[in-house]
Amino acid sequence: MTDSLKKSEQRSSLWSDAWVKLRKNRLALLGLIVLITLCIISLLTPLIAPYSYEEQDLMLGATPPSFAHWLGTDIFGRDMLTRIMYGGRVSLMVGFIATAVALVIGILWGSIAGFFGGRVDALMMRIVDIMYALPFMIFIVLLMVVFGRNILLLFIAIGAVEWLTMARIVRSQVMALRQQEFIEAAYSMGLSKWTIIRRHIIPNTLGPVIVYTTLTIPSVMLLEAFLSFLGLGIQPPQSSWGLLINYGVETMEEYPWLLIFPGITLSVTLFALNFLGDGLRDALDPRTSKD
Amino acid sequence: MALLEVNNLKISFHTRNGEVKAVDDVSFSVDSGETLAIVGESGSGKSVTCYSLLDLLPKPPAVLEGGTANFDGEDLLACSKDRMRQFRGNHIAIIFQDPMTSLNPFLTIGEQLIEPLIYHPEKSQRLKRDAARSEAIDLLAEVGIINPQARFENYPHEFSGGMRQRVMIAMALINKPRLLICDEPTTALDVTIQAQILKLIKALQKTRDVAVIFISHDLGVVAGIADKVLVMCEGKTQESNSTQHVFYNSTSDYTHKLLAAIPSGVKTSKNYAQDGEPLVEVKQVKTYFKDFSSKDKSAIKAVDNVSLSIQKGEVLGLVGESGSGKSTLGRSILQLAPLIAGSIHYAGNKISALKASDFLPYRRKLQMIFQDPYASLNPRMTVYETLAEPLLYHGIANKKTVAKQVQQLMDDVGLARSGVLKYPHEFSGGQRQRIAIGRAITTQPEFLIADEPVSALDVTIQAQILELILNLVEQRNLTMLFISHDLSVVRYISDRVAVMHRGKLVEEGNTEQLWAEPKMNYTKALLKAIPLTNPTREKGFMNT
User: Fold this and answer.
1) Which residue of B has its CA nearest to A15?
2) Residues of chain B found within 8 Å of residue A12, distances taken between Cβ atoms
3) CA separation for the pair A192, B216 (Å, rounded)
4) What is the DSSP string of B184-232?
5) Is any Cβ of chain A less than 8 angstroms from the Cβ of B351?
6) Of B237, B188, B182, B240, which is closest to residue B214 (Cα–Cα)?
7) Parallel/antiparallel/unpaired status of strands B341-346 and B496-501
């Protein structure tokens, strides 16, 4: 019997079981593959892009898709495929990094507030309320004025705004969990508070957190486009999917491909994210079967 | 012909894991003024049977495979949706188990009571608000609500559990049904309240001449109230006969098993209590909670000046109804609830008011088994992780030896070793409680607090878990504080009993002495309210 409990099996835990289940979920796997492919393309863009992103051909102007330019060109004669590939670098980076910032701060803040309750909770959540009330634009402009224009700062600024909702979601989850008997059992085992938060509380808040994360990434991408549109984000000739879509909307009637192709790219990314998110949520719930 | 005649009822559930026969060829009948009890453990199909009569089952997955249910000559299982609505509204009423969740918290109970009268499906029968109100108030008085005029305007949370169940009964009776289905109506209630509600149902049945189907998992509860008993197990009829026959001349093995599993009589295992210094001493402990919901923000005295001592090797039963503070006392000993005053001593050392780090060595020695095996295990940890965590955390095992120790624990609590990689939801309630017990003994404690460890379990499982606990106490020389509301269980397991009521210790004494000669009135009332599997005694009790 001891032999049947091999070392590899002993590590059977939430995460390894989740991976087994995720691999069986075709849609989620497809989402994961699409996302990884997009990330690889973005990383390799300077090597594989058909044109340089600064390369203009004003004589050419906006042309529909052709052999030379698979996805057409914009009004400055720039290759759309190249633009989308370079845009993806910015958009994906903003999406992932800003969301990661929001995740880390939100989960920690929310679980600490929810777990300790009382005055700690009141104080921490009032800070969240104040941050909510702060006009977002003023906050960003202030940051830009103080620290100058910097793409990293953009990530942090967006992340610093998006964590608020995450903290609220996590807090409400934790407050419900705190009443559960298994948390008391962990106390009576003598586990430290930090161990209880890490091992017993956070894993049980993952379901809603993952769903909210998959919603945050696209909204962060669009937020970046909005900021860039106002001149607070990245600067031309650099671009992002959000910006490309914004320009595409302006010229929608004459040059529809300028809207369609970045739009499709963003949509595909969002679908992939949602499939992966749903798959992850199910995979991390032991109550769904392994088969 | 009887009012309701059910013949060859078959219901199955079509799930992803195949077809499950929930009800398999069950027949019964019940007439006006008669009470039929359907008894069975969880999963026996007793509730499914009754829900199918009112078309309350979720379809799918439930599928009606066959059978008839003639109510006054009409087949309930074959009637149209509209006709079913009329049956539900006018002829058949149902009382659910949990009076907390079956009432809408946003409406006054009066509003909920008159709803079926003023929105009656047939317009001609609708009442005006005033008429409905006076009818509802009469009914509230009839089910024993004191001052019904004023209580009419109250919200559900302003009632106690027992009063809420009375309101539920009033709601069920408002349209003067001819058949009343009670689905475990007293399971969530304290034993003295349970006795009152049972009496009420019996009395109402007599005055109103209704037929009653009483669903319960507890043979003791139905002994006094039922004329006929149907015993079910895994969807099949085990026995269907008169109450007298089922309790005294039963031929069914399963009925025998159920009756035998109900703890009755005295403790059979030895009393291991040692003389000398007590192991645990509770001295004038007070634990208060602030009540933010009520208008005066004074504290709730959950535990009010309680002193207790437990000898080494002794099993002390702590008895009380809900809200008596018995669980809070247990949690206070483990520093899971803060003390306001008093002290707790363990083996002569004062352990209350210790810092968390100083208390850590005692955590190993004092452990707790919790009530609800569904809530006391982390749903996202495998059994292996659950059991290994305290072993590794306290350094009792290292990474090499931990697997072996976990397997040893699985053996000790009677679980298959192959189950270690499963998650809690893959186990039954009894098995989960075994896991929870396994976790409590990982640190080789000396003192165990068991907080209602069997009250969420079926009676046959309950007997097994009690056996396991007694065995562990014996093998490991444990001292135990056994907290329970179930007096029969406490009598079976404890050497000494302490009774708590509203935060205060009412009475304390050796188990058998207390049973034979209770001194305080509260203890007497408590002992008298225990439902026994003795229909003759219980019927007499009903008529008092």
Assistant:
1) B380
2) 382, 384, 421
3) 43
4) STTTTS-HHHHHHHHHHHHHHHHHHT-EEEEEES-HHHHHTT-SEEEEE
5) no
6) B182
7) unpaired
ipTM for this prediction: 0.75
Q: What is the pLDDT of residues A12-31, one digit of tens each?
A: 577 788 888 888 888 999 99
- CB burial class (10 A; 0-12, 13-18, 19+) of residue A152? exposed
CB < 8 Å to A287, chain B: 379, 423, 425
The pLDDT of residue B291: 62
In chain A, what is the greatest distance between 2 CA atoms, to the nearest angstrom? Answer: 78
Note the Cα A10 to chain centre separation in Å. Answer: 33
Q: What is the value of pTM for the model shown?
A: 0.80
Distances (CA, A) of A48 to A42, A215, B89, B174: 10, 30, 73, 78
Tokens of A70: 């698979």
Q: CA torsion, points B461, B462, B463, B465, in degrees to nearest 10?
A: 90
With CB atoms and an 8 Å threshold, state whether B379 touches A184: no
Q: Tell me: the pLDDT tens digits for A147-182?
A: 777 777 777 778 878 889 999 999 999 998 888 889
Where would I find the beta strands (DSSP E) of B81-220? 92-95, 179-183, 211-216
Q: What is the mean pLDDT of residues A53-81?
A: 77
- Give me the phi and psi of A163, to 5 degrees please: -70, -15
Q: Going by C-beta distance under 8 Å and a sequence separation of 6 or more, which residues neighbour residue B471?
A: none
* Per-residue confidence band for A215, with pLDDT thresholds at 50, 70 and 90: confident
Q: CB contacts < 8 Å between A and B, how many?
A: 90
Q: Which positions of chain B have pLDDT values less than 70? A: 1, 121, 291-298, 542-544
Q: Which residues of B touch A13 (CB under 8 A)?
A: 381-382, 385
Output the pLDDT for position B293. Answer: 58
Cis omega (within 30 of 0) on the bond before B58? no
Spatial neighbors of B475 by CB under 8 A, at least 6 apart, are none
Question: Residue B288 and residue B340: Cα distance in Å, rounded?
Answer: 7
Nearest chain A residue (CA) to B386: A186
Q: Which residues pair with B62 in a beta bridge?
A: B13
The C-alpha R_g of chain B, in whole angstroms, comes to 25
pLDDT at B317: 92
Contact A286 B423 (CB under 8 A): yes
User: What is chain A's length?
Assistant: 291
Q: Is the pLDDT of residue A6 over 70?
A: no
> What gap in Å lies between CA B158 and CA B164, rounded to an integer?
9
B111 touches chain A (CB under 8 A): no
| Structure confidence by residue, pLDDT tens digits, B342-362 | 889 998 888 887 888 888 888
Cα separation, A256 vs B48, whole angstroms: 60
